[in-house]
Amino acid sequence: MIAVDARRLLGRIRELGAIGRDGEGRLTRLAASDTDKQGRDLFVGWLRQAGLDVAIDRIGNIFGIWQSAGNAGKAPLLIGSHIDTVIDAGIYDGCYGVLAGLEVIETLKASGLSPSRPLAVAAFTNEEGVRFSPDMMGSLVHAGGVDVEAALAAVGTDGGTLGQELARIGYAGEREPGFLKPHIYVELHIEQGPVLEREGIPIGAVETLQGISWQRITLDGVANHAGTTPMSMRRDAGYAAARVVTFLHDRAAASNAPTVATVGTMRLEPNAINVIPSRAVFTVDLRDPDEQRLQAEEAALAAFLQRLAVEGIAVTVERLARFEPVVFDGRVVELIETAARKRGLVSRRMTSGAGHDAQMIARIAPAAMIFVPSAGGISHSPREHTEDAELVAGANILLDVITELAELEG
Amino acid sequence: MIAVDARRLLGRIRELGAIGRDGEGRLTRLAASDTDKQGRDLFVGWLRQAGLDVAIDRIGNIFGIWQSAGNAGKAPLLIGSHIDTVIDAGIYDGCYGVLAGLEVIETLKASGLSPSRPLAVAAFTNEEGVRFSPDMMGSLVHAGGVDVEAALAAVGTDGGTLGQELARIGYAGEREPGFLKPHIYVELHIEQGPVLEREGIPIGAVETLQGISWQRITLDGVANHAGTTPMSMRRDAGYAAARVVTFLHDRAAASNAPTVATVGTMRLEPNAINVIPSRAVFTVDLRDPDEQRLQAEEAALAAFLQRLAVEGIAVTVERLARFEPVVFDGRVVELIETAARKRGLVSRRMTSGAGHDAQMIARIAPAAMIFVPSAGGISHSPREHTEDAELVAGANILLDVITELAELEG
């Protein structure tokens, strides 16, 4: 059984993770920034060292392609993720999947075998969406979900456009986005959630990616004196908001489904200790891997808000974002399970609660994801951590899945 | 039956209410400000016109005293309230009670009768507490509740001390606070709440003033990804806070007592749409006219918070303020009811939900309050309104109560 070079993989994860540190040691490589350029340069150098063809498209996605005269006409197997980061990031989110992809290709290349179709690794631009909106932008453009010109015109939090910034750092490529149409796409990623660690399971075979519904809700009641207004005469927007919070939470918690509901932001007006709130503004984040259930959650929320309206609370709802769930390719998910079993690793089917480039590429090719445990479920933090052995195990499962799909010939 | 001069009273309320308007017509006479000086000057002018002795104490409280050689040694009947305002105020809060007090004394003086003891009207300094803390400061100092030096050292929101500001506007008087010990104190005020208007009752005989318990509560849970953290693995501080809000509201609403509970402020951390709140900070305002019930409310809250702690939410409670309820003098309350009945006006006994100078003076003398309706329960706003006829009716009840207490001799 072949295996990835664990030292090389782990060394590269640490080396890339050392780039973009500020004076206090905080890691930040926002999309198309100077530090992103440094990370990209390092990655492209490794692609060239590995003898891969490097291609960069107009949205800055980087591809390392291993192809031969014999298979160059076929759709490649694509492994991908991203190497941009959030502010004060950990070293694994995205980078692990990209560097494991490179590792798998190098390992197979060194084996002396020939795949029936090209193998490629991709680092997609601006997955995090911190500097430019929306997130998962490079893979979205690759999948044809948004026009490349519109994406390049996105204005960053610091004023410049993505197009200007990509040109400035030398990563405004010439290839048309989508030039590489994958035969199958596989993404390896840290879970960013607590499930695998809690259950002591090393491999997640990700079969779905949750649909997301984001809404901003404004409730308007009547401000009044907290001391002189009897409870029966109040129209307390803060109390109404609290009822929505408990309704959503209790409903999701009581469900047997993996539905999650979160109210992450809340603002009261006038926000004074002795004034009944006239207004509450809060956000609702609903997620479910099943579109019918997600719609049912939205409908239940709408019905609850309607009840508040009948009670004299004015309700305003803004839709902020809505993505349908993604169902990954069943055959690839089975390959992941089989690979884990062969290596004696327990796996479980699961849902991705976070968004990933795989959900975009799933629009144009069969796709699936492999998860490894995240300590404490933590990500987007310097405390993000996965054990070395778990990282290597995940990369070997990726290797096995790609090996199976590549129909290697001796 | 004698009656106040309605035109004079209403005219003075409007005239005083015209002082302290900014370019946009907003009324603001913060304590010891230039506009407060203008209001004080106008009021003192009216006191002198009425032939009253004017006395000003070191905390700036203004007294207009009608006494004669025959009654000068006796403790006076005191009528009072305040003429400082909040920012963007209405014209009735405080001013109505002070000007009605002057009106009552002028009316009795003009009647040719002689009271058995002096009559006095007081305008207490800094009742609103907007510029200097605490509120109800002048009456608190008068009642000996806080040392005058400490009160004068209070630093305003704009940097100067109350002592400096009173000296600057010419209202740092020479009398020692408390020099005038009232025989009985009566305060006439707009309700600042909706009860009288809703019930169509013109006169409130205020028998109690609610106790107040203010607390700031901080709940600490664990921040986590809103998409990847199952409901069963959350320690959501925002959800815990919402449970406190609904618990307090529902408990107070279900009670037969006049208990009120308000959560007026709320802040979540990190306050991001897709992050489970790690922290919620909110205030609790509990009020009840009965001390035992108020303590029971506090205990119920503490028990609920203890339940949250058992569930893994860290709880921090800060006491911000605590005042025991005030029980006004039963005989004066009965006099108010009798006076209303004699004038054919419906009255009801009630609780004051707001704080008033009367609660401070009640420490040193029998006291009670008379309320008139506030349209919509609104105060501390330009929309504060009471009908002229209601204002005049309230002043006549005050006249009747003072007449009864004054043991007039012809």
Automatic annotation (TrEMBL), chains A, B:
User: Is Zinc found in the keyword set?
Assistant: yes
Task: Check the record and name the InterPro entries matching this protein.
Answer: Amidase_Cbmase (IPR010158), Bact_exopeptidase_dim_dom (IPR036264), Peptidase_M20 (IPR002933), Peptidase_M20_dimer (IPR011650)
Where, by residue number, does Zn(2+) 1 bind?
H82, D93, H189
Keywords on record: Hydrolase, Metal-binding, Zinc
For activity, the cofactor(s) needed are: Zn(2+)
Q: Name one GO molecular function term.
A: metal ion binding
Record: residues binding Zn(2+) 2: D93, E128, H380
Q: Does the keyword Iron apply?
A: no
Report the cofactor remark.
Binds 2 Zn(2+) ions per subunit.
- Family per similarity comment: Belongs to the peptidase M20 family.
What this protein is called in its record is Zn-dependent hydrolase
State the organism named in the record. Answer: Rhizobium loti (Mesorhizobium loti)
The taxonomy runs: Bacteria, Pseudomonadati, Pseudomonadota, Alphaproteobacteria, Hyphomicrobiales
